[in-house]
Amino acid sequence: MHRALIVCLVACTHAAVAPPAPVAKLADPEPMSDPAEYAIPRISREAGEAIFARTGIGDPYRTGVPYPIFLALLRAFPATFGATPAALAAKFGFVARAADPASADPDVRAGLPFGMHLTIDPRTEIPFVVTSCALCHAETIRWPGGSAFVVGLANKRVQIHAYDAAFAAVTHERGFSAAHLERLAREAAEAARVTWPAAYAPAIVAAAVAALTRRATERAALHAHVAGGLPGRVATLESFALALGQLTGARVTFAPTVGWAKVPDVIGFRARTTLSWDGSGEGPMDLLAVEADVAVGVRVAWLERHPFQGASLGAYLRQPPPRPAFPGAIDRARAERGKLLFAKHCESCHGSYAVDGRVVDYDEPIVALADLGTDPARARAATESFTRAANDPKLTRGYTRFAPTGGYVPPVLTNVWARAPYGHVGQWPSLAVLAMPPAARPPQVIVAPDADYDLAAVGVATHAALGDGDYRYDATQPGLSNAGHPFLAELGPDAGLVIEYLKTL
Known about the structure:
35% of the residues lie in helices and 10% in strands. It has 21 helices and 16 strands.
């Protein structure tokens, strides 16, 4: 029996963090499941696209869950997970994918949400559910009369921390037993017509139950700290704090206020030198692109065995597919006037752009909190213990450095019309709200991420009362202030001209 087969860890790459193996443990005694689809013979954009949108980085024994057990959990705890993959997607805000039993694509046959993938373990032929970047970084945007599915656009509805916590919650429910889940897994495997060897099944299920129980205990403090997070937001540093503690053996603490951040759009990758909202993590971009995967369980040994993954992912992110143009009316004369105002008042921070929205010049500045005035929680989320652990030379090997900056990075604005809500924590639902003087912005707003995009305000729709799929954004809560960035409002009526220009990017 392969000991690694019993590891059952589920998390989202770049968001919730599963318990990883210590970095120092390079000579790992556990065998490695290495499906052929993860073999990259040469660095290519095509390989990077497959990683981002479909397969993920891999190492399924550490980052995946056997598909029959995945289905057994859905069947055993429908109130927690949803009884089907479609219900799972609806519950946690994933992009749903309709099942097609006749499809040659196993992910489509299974109806898994976009960003979940079935990879086959070559040792046992058991399918494992793994996740890719697209689970959080892909979204369907709808507007009156049209829609577009955009890979790389931030998912406005995803609730990745709630999904992570669900695996802990079920360990306290009746029915969470090896005997019950083993029966359900066997039935699910038969129904799905997938391999589930009788010789392995009892041991795999029993060990999965033990692993999930242990994991629930290990992550209890994190789950309590980030409970109640809004859709489309992640507590990235808090998640990494847990991983850093496990990787280094040090005690890594949380800051008092959660440093919530909006799931970012990846379109600015090729112009950036860091990946975070505050520019605190530095290192080679291709390494930063896969760094979070170590935090979710991918072994360093796996990355060493697959050295072209980071470079291929970087090649894809530097050449993103074309995005849909603003689908509403644009007053070109006003946009030209707005372009001049943008060059005078905004370009020094946000860069300059070609007529098709591509970056011409961008230098990734850090704007200090004192000058920007936005909520400081994300910029202050890294504690001293976090910074020490993140710079442990045994962990970083000198490739990366973490240094709090005390400010935020002005984002690249390509395709900005589609990227609401705006701000590092999604504190402004539209460009119209961002153009208000900070004191005049509404302290509470009901956001409707499932509704048609508001083309007039250029942002997500807002409602007067809560409806299905809506949520209340309360800017009076710690970490969620909508203050700061008065610069657009300071232009007065001319702010509308700049917004007209931004529609063209």
